[in-house]
Amino acid sequence: MCTNGLNALHLASKEGHVKMVAELLHKEIVLETTTKKGNTALHIAALAGQDDVVRELVNFGANVNAQSQKGFTPLYMAAQENHLEVVKFLLENGANQNVATEDGFTPLAVALQQGHENVVAHLINYGTKGKVRLPALHIAARNDDTRTAAVLLQNDPNADVLSKTGFTPLHIAAHYENLNVAQLLLNRGASVNFTPQNGITPLHIASRRGNIIMVRLLLDRGANIEVRTKDELTPLHCAARNGHLRIAEILLDHGAPIQAKTKVRSLKNRWMDG
Fold it and tell me: What's the confidence (pLDDT) of residue 44?
């Protein structure tokens, strides 16, 4: 066995030597032996995209939902590396795409992060959405990934799906200054004035960030310029406190109430950090 914990089956699986894998399995090598990081031969084959080896291991009885030390499954690894055929085979043979890693990410989440459009589409079409810290559409909004966002909206037309903290994908797009996905969301029916419990709208966020184009887009789509947060902050307050002169001018030109006052004694940062 190697110093990193790989045995003969692991090495043959990594390199795609399916005949060697079959021979070792029939010599009664322990199928679920793990490396130091907790990876089985199936993890290794899935990560390497070795389709034939994956089939051999699964047909021999490998656990398709085995988790490594950090919670990675073979499906997660295949999704991470954009190995679509492996993803398809594992799903067809019982892989559970709701199994999350220690940090809460599923195969869908990692595929979204990596921009693997075909894997994302297949995972969604297979019928299960990953349970992640941010919903899938929020991740697409964060990455300004219009193609993935469009796929997600085809499967679920609700453009105002909420994160656990009460923000919509449009809030996220405004925060990350991602104009392309913001336009897509608005075109697909996202509420420009969606107000969560804290009262923060996308226009508040765009004004705070100082993105002129985003502010203009939101205003053109009907954003309420007088809307207030729970602490009575208007978009103009957000621009002023962050020194965004041009944003303030635009807001004032659109009729922002210049005399509006907040009710906070200490302007602490109560905004999402991403």
Answer: 97
